[in-house]
Amino acid sequence: MKKSHYDTLQVSTKASTEVIDAAYQRLKPSLNEAARNGDFEARNQLLFLEEAYSVLVSPDKRAAYDAAQSPAAPQIPAYQPAYVFESANSAPSGVLASTSSKLLIGLSLCALAFTVYKFNGQSAQQKIQAKQIEINAQQGSGEVRTDNYRAENERMLIQGVVQNQSKQIDSSYNIADREAERRQRELDYRANAEAQALEMQRRRLESQQQHQQWQQEQYEKERKLREAKIAAEAPKKQLCNMYALNGNTRDARAAGCYY
User: Fold this and answer.
1) CA distance linking residue 240 with residue 256, whole number of Å
2) CA distance readout (Å), 173 to 79, 165, 177, 187
3) Domain residue ranges in the chain
4) In angstroms, rounded to a whole number, what is the distance separating the alpha carbons of residues 47 and 35?
5) What is the Cα–Cα distance from 17 to 39, expressed in whole angstroms?
6) Span 121-143, pLDDT tens digits
7) pLDDT given for residue 115 in this prediction
8) Which 8-state DSSP code applies to residue 91?
């Protein structure tokens, strides 16, 4: 059985506009949240809720809707004869003709009311079908959005993997660069150490050569001093030798020949 707009909003048929608005504001948030979470049934109910609210909140639309939901069949007016006759057979022909015409008018009104009711029912059915088509389209678009969301997730995942690999490659390059720099510093240090060792060895050799030269100079000085001393003492020695040969000890002591 199809739910009416009053059932959708959960209000009575005599509810005021304020009550209808309050019911709409009460039901809409929960349906909105469920629809955002992917509940298609909630989306359908939200569509019906919007349609019910748009109809019942407008006085004109509500009156037309109420008329379509419970069409009042025209009542055939009861014929009250202007004259009282003793029997039905005694009624004149004019009275019978008037009764037949009123009956035909009543039947025509009934047929017209049925046609209006059927037309309104067909219009409501067409609206429901249109809503169903719209809901199916929204479901299709929801599936498309879901596929797009999955594709976007996969693209972001692949992009993350590529970025990870790029970072790993960059890290490997950085490690290789640091290792090359370390080896270069080590080679430079070794080269500097060897150069310093050679420089120290050269200075040691120079120091040895200078020491040997100094020793040679000292030796030469001492030799020259000895030779000078010998040369200076040679006359005294000759004099002492002469005093010794002559046996002149007194003069030898005076000349300092004895120590």
Assistant:
1) 8
2) 108, 12, 6, 21
3) 1-70
4) 11
5) 29
6) 566 666 766 777 676 666 655 55
7) 63
8) -
Which tokens belong to 151? 């594709």
Residue listed under structure tokens 């029912």: 121
Secondary element (H or E) of residue 19: helix 17-36
Whole-model pTM: value is 0.30
Alpha-carbon gap, residue 155 to 109, rounded angstroms: 68
Instruction: Read off the pLDDT of each residue in 151-178 and give the average, rounded to a whole number.
Output: 76
Report d(CA 231, CA 233) in Å as an integer.
6
Output the CATH code of domain 1-70. Answer: 1.10.287.110
Which residues have CB under 8 Å from 243's CB, separation 6+? 249, 251, 252, 255, 257
Q: What is the tens place of the pLDDT at every residue in 4-37? A: 999 999 999 999 999 999 999 999 999 999 999 9
Query: If you search the block for the tokens 């209006």, which residue do you land on?
Result: 116
259, 257, 228: which is closest to 243 by C-alpha? 257
**Contact call for residues 20 and 53 (beta carbons, < 8 A):** yes
Distance, in Å, from the CA atom of 155 to the CA atom of 34, rounded to the nearest integer, reads 28
What DSSP string describes 167-233?
Answer: HHHHHHHHHHHHHHHHHHHHHHHHHHHHHHHHHHHHHHHHHHHHHHHHHHHHHHHHHHHHHHHHHHH
